[in-house]
Specification:
The complex is a heterodimer. By secondary structure, chain A is mainly alpha-helical. Chain A is built from 21 helices and 2 strands. The radius of gyration of chain A is 22 Å and the shape is globular. Chain B has 24 helices and 2 strands. In chain B, helix 14 runs antiparallel to helix 17, helix 16 runs antiparallel to helix 21 and helix 19 crosses helix 23. Classes of the chains: A mainly alpha, B mainly alpha.
Chain lengths: 527, 610
Amino acid sequence: MLDISESVMQFLLAFILVAPLLGAVAALLPAPPGLKGKSPEQAVLRHGVTVTGAVLLATIVLALGFDHDQPSKMQATTDISWITALGVRVHLGVDGISLPLLVLTALLTFLCALHSHGSPPRAPGTHPRAFVALLLVLESGTLATFAVLDLLLFFLAFEMVLIPMYFLIARWGGAARRAAAWRFVLYTLLGSVVMLLGLLLVGVKSGTFDMVALATDNGRDISTSVQLIAVLAIGTGLAVKAPMWPLHSWLPDAHTAAPTAGSVLLAGVLLKMGTYGFVRIVLPIAPDGMHLLAPYLGAFAVAGIIYGSLACLALARPGARGDLKRLIAYSSVGHMGFVLLGIATMTPTGVNGALFANIAHGLITGLLFFLAGAVKERYGTADLDTLAGATGAALYGRAPRLGGLLAFAAVASLGLPGLAGFWGEMLTLFGAFDPAAGLSRPAFRTYLAIGAFGTLLTAAYLLIVVRRVCMGAKETAERPRLPDVARYEYAAWTPLAALTVVAGLWPALLLGLTDPAVQQLLAGGTS
Amino acid sequence: MTLTAVAAAPAGLLGLAAGAPAPVGQAAGRTAGPAVAETVQSVDWAAVAPPAVAAGFALIVLVADLFVRPERKALLGRTAIAGLILALGALIPLRAADRRTFCLTTDPGVCSYTADRFTLVIQVLVLGGALLTALLSLPYTRGAAEGVPARRKGGPGPSGGLPAGGDRRLPAGGRGLPAGEPSRSGGLPAGEFWFLLLSASAGAALLPAARDLATLVVALEVASLPVFALVGLKRGDRRSGEAALKFFLSSVTATAVMLLGVSFVYAATGTLHLTELAQRLDAVPEGLGTVAKAGVALTLVGFAFKTAAAPFHFWVPDTYVGAPLPVAAYLSVVGKAVGLTGLILVTVVAFPSYADVWGPALAVLAALTMTAGNAAALRQPAGRARSAVRLLAWSSVAQAGYLLVPIAAAAYSGDDQIGATVAYALMYAVVNLGAFAVAALVARTRPLNRISDYRGLYATRPGAALALAFFLLCLAGLPPGVIGLFAKVTVFSAAVDAGLGWLAVIMAVNVVIALYYYLRWAAVLFVTPRPQGTGTPSAAEPGAPGGPEAASPAAGEAAAEPAGTTAARPGRARPAPVPLTLAIALTAVAGVVLSGWPQLVLRFAATTLF
């Protein structure tokens, strides 16, 4: 849209990776005079907003400067040798697959920083300084995951988010936060070390770690058995992160314990790293191995859809003492099941659907976690039974705008046509109807049926949640009105809600970006 | 000058510590070529300078100790450090080209001393490690020098860093600490300490250059014998004596086994030069095959002892805990490098024809070592006395396992894999010494040195806490410890390249186990310390499993704290001694630079070193 010279684009891409790191270091230093603000806490939180805001701005300019006529071409590429001994190159670039994820990451991090500025994270013995620094490191790591084009750098970026997320959960989290943080970090690390072995196998056998070169090769240099092992190893690592049933068990605990910003980023961005890895690495680099394993991936994906929905239904039941955040976490398992199913079809339709569902899930679940955090703040608990009492939490009556937003997010999450959640799930199911040549049609038709049934279950539990949280008996003396949406909350939530509508009404905006790139990846870089 | 006499320059001069093996071993080597005795070898003094300078300074310190007045003993430490820096400087001219010396006059291609890239890198590692150890040791030895006279004068010592030590000692003694804490009064005797440290460094620097089995064994003994004495140097400490004895016995057994192996190999081949051995082992006479095999196996067992590889690692924790802290740091880095260097030389240079024997053996050994080390480190209770050093000790066993992986891989796919071990060892040396430096700093105020003593270190010493967290993450191999991550990647890729997939998977599991205890320790640093005086542990953190056993001593210490800290007010933490700060800063800067530019050490992984 904008005509920006290539060198400026390169700079912008490098800037969005490095600026958060520099910002993290700066956050630990005392504020310079003139920027001290009301208090040191306020100053550092504002610093977080400034840095993430600058990164978001740079990302938007990058997106505007992106040549939308050639989304399958890597743009803003930088390619510098870093560690010649290992053949690691600082190879950066964006195409139609990574650009939406970059924008989503920058946006969600900025909104989290904004939200933290309005309601500072509090925990005994902690300082917002560390919170902001960790948030920025996390942002740099996730952005890097989507922007690097070297297998080992991808691994480095993948690992980079572990430590900040661990501390965010362990220090600012709720009950049982330490155990949850440990579970998160150990699961992910075990997965990613196995992934490293797979990446090394690919690198050693093909002689390069460069994703573009490997994708162009399309696995021609690697024997099918090696591809199979590589897909198993890399896929395990990515599946833990995504998360795929049955490797998901770290997720509900981590989400329940994490602070609001942690939950939002975990669901909105970190899970995407797993599915992005499948699309960017597994599909183009080891297509033969993926071909063999795709039916199993599909099976696990639909198992995840059903499992997530059933778990949510169980949690939403009266008397189950279900936690709202835990419920949203389980719903993430279901939604990511759709994404994985789309990838397993290995068709452009399915993969496009997966990428769309990825973004939609980031927007909607991010919003849902913000709202769940707000409910928890106001009621002091996220326990559905305590919230609802005998009749319901009556959010419509006690905080109408908050209630309305929650209902909107829930409806978007269940995939109402016209909102973002719809297209992704529909396209993945379309993909499953007609999977890539050589994949078992009956199997994928079965997955299609099970997945479609999963959407019904999703609608069921989300409507139950809406009924129990938003509706209820009229306000009484014991149940006063609650503070409704504050200004900083509007600022943090409006963009997500607006984008959910935009993506729902104008899916071509995203699909136009991803489709050419997906076509090229699946065709081995030759289309 | 004959070879025998010259080789004695590094080794024989240290005969005080090394004892008789030097001449005997060399003599055995000579008998191979009867013509050697009549001819004169030319000696490349520049090539032998690094170990020779260290050895020379060892003697200077030993003699100077007799003449320096007690209050000026700090001079000895400075001399030793200057010696190590000079020895490091002597490496610079050697970078230009490979040099060889002490070659057979009959066959100039066969040499006993080679200064190639491998030698230089290992020499940088051991001399640099010794230099950092020396910096760590300064505060420990100086106390002995200034303890009595300084109090008589009633003034601060030369550096002014330690006068508070006298005040600290009283509450420490009053609390009835177990004997053997680094009490500043006892200190380490300066003259002996510096002499022994320099001697051991000279041996360690000689070892990578050795290209015949006799020189190798002599260098190994020169590198080890002074360390026995260093371990036992804490006077009047039962634990230190016990540690020295344990270390001594296991090490001497290893030497005996190794010498037996060497003699078998010599019997089967008739040569001690490694390159010659490699050729002749290919064609061992029919009847001697078993002897050669037994010799190879026994030699390897001996070196496995020295590297503390798995079934032979039991001496490590007790020795590290009993030894003075800087000596433990030295053992964990330089001591380990010595064993590994020997192992590399023997396996890759001397016994390549038996790769099908030692390859699988080393792979199994590596797997066992890392698993045993990590499992034990995982089980260290944070509240146990000296658990920090104990954890570092076990983690060093585990790291030795990772270091063995590329050597095992070399059996399957060639010498180049050795570079991964070298690169990993360089990374490990920097960050492990850094971790020990922070441990030494913490031990000054918390002599029990439990992991629970690191609780809230960030509040009192943010710099040290950040540095330690960085070192631990490097050891764990997680960003921001980028260099640790990529060093592990090179090791993994060596294993994958060699087709040792099962070993790579075992290592992967171990990396995750190791992360748990490293990260647990790192997390403790940033936890808010308990309010002083209140003995009850508020909001017990599972991340710092203090539990009741940790709580009670902590309460006792908290109660005793005011007496100790009043002297050091107004600052919350007493100023750290300059050498310790310098050591932490050096290692931290090195770690950060390497993280930004891993190529600095990883380049060794990409080329052949020999």
